[in-house]
Amino acid sequence: MKSKKDVQPGTLALMVLKTLDVLGPLHGYGIARRIEQISGDLLFVNQGTLYPVLLRLEQEGAVESDWGPSENNRRARFYRLTRAGRKLLESEKRDWEQTAAIIARFFEVKAEDLA
Question: Domains in the chain: how many in total?
Answer without folding.
Answer: 1
